[in-house]
Design goal:
CATH superfamily of the largest domain: 2,3-Dihydroxybiphenyl 1,2-Dioxygenase, domain 1
Largest sheet: 8 strands, mixed
Distance between the termini: 66 Å
Helix content: 25-40%
Order of helices and strands: HEHEHHEHEHEHEEEHEHEEEH
CATH architecture of the largest domain: Roll
Number of strands: 12
Shape: elongated
CATH class of the largest domain: Alpha Beta
């Protein structure tokens, strides 16, 4: 990093400095940036060529100690950067390596957030926000960015995988009789106009779903796509809290609140938010929705 850039860093981080965004063709030296941040008592974060909005927000939330409610949306990030709580106030330096790797629209939004937040912090005296964007040295170690959010990584077990079948009896001849899975239950779900069977496999289950009405979505699925995979169900500790968090993160929910399912409170996430996969969430036994939905 050249001397003029280092001098600019000091000027923008000084108590009277306004922070902001510096974009430079010079290779960023994280050690120099970290040392400069330390000199001014600033927190330091590094974005190693993030590819997505999610990677930017997750890394900054983690590095800067943002609260869990922040989720993964631009508005929340801007609010936390622009108006930090007293405990999070003070100068911040962010090294943004390889900014051109980020989606163009997301990069434009992030740049606007940086400028707006830096101005707000300067006016309020909350400490400079300085982001330095430039290329990464070829020898820099690339720090893996989490592509799966904490609240997804923190899910419980796979509760079940659901398969659409034309006939439960015929399907049981394979899953129960030939593969040896233990049949736990068969039941009619009148409100969904399906007949289902659960078979245990380890800590999880296979759900077989047979439509009993030709006009339902399940029946149309069977007619259009044939027998096979329909959805995967994950267990969560608190379904209501999980749905609120996912909605704040911008996911499209089919159910915005828990509803009664065959094995407990459930809700579905739309395939448009799950790369084409229908995802069901079920609350673990004893969770708050079990009581509110009247399970015995």
């Amino acid at each position: 990093m050249d001397r003029p850039l280092i001098l600019e860093l000091h000027a923008l981080l000084a108590p009277e400095g306004e922070g902001g965004l510096i974009e430079t063709p010079a290779v960023l030296d994280p050690a120099v940036l970290a040392a400069t941040a330390n000199e001014y008592g600033a927190r330091f974060a590094t974005l190693h060529g993030p590819l997505t909005k999610t990677q930017v927000i997750d890394k900054l939330n983690e590095a800067l100690g943002h609260p869990a409610w922040a989720g993964r949306n631009w508005d929340a990030l801007e609010e936390l950067l622009a108006h930090p709580d007293a405990a999070l106030a003070g100068p911040v330096v962010i090294a943004w390596h390889d900014p051109d790797r980020l989606d163009r629209a997301d990069a434009a939004t992030f740049r606007a957030i940086i400028r707006s937040a830096a101005e707000a912090r300067a006016q309020a005296g909350d400490g400079s926000l300085l982001v330095v964007a430039g290329p990464r040295a070829p020898t820099d170690e690339v720090v893996p960015m989490p592509t799966v959010p904490d609240h997804i990584r923190g899910l419980g077990k796979v509760h079940h995988v659901a398969l659409i079948v034309r006939s439960l009896e015929t399907a049981l001849g394979f899953w129960r009789d030939m593969l040896g899975l233990e049949l736990e239950t068969i039941m009619d779900i009148e409100q969904d106009r399906v007949r289902i069977a659960f078979l245990g496999v380890g800590e999880s289950k296979v759900e077989l779903v047979e439509p009993t009405d030709d006009t339902t979505g399940v029946a149309r699925f069977l007619e259009g796509k044939g027998e096979g995979f329909h959805h995967v169900c994950f267990e969560v500790a608190n379904l209501t809290e999980t749905l609120i968090r996912l909605e704040l993160d911008g996911l499209e929910l089919i159910d915005s609140a828990p509803r009664r399912g065959a094995e407990g409170p459930v809700a579905f996430i739309h395939p448009r938010s799950c790369h084409g996969v229908l995802v069901e969430l079920i609350e673990a036994p004893g969770g708050p929705a079990w009581t509110s939905l009247g399970y015995g």
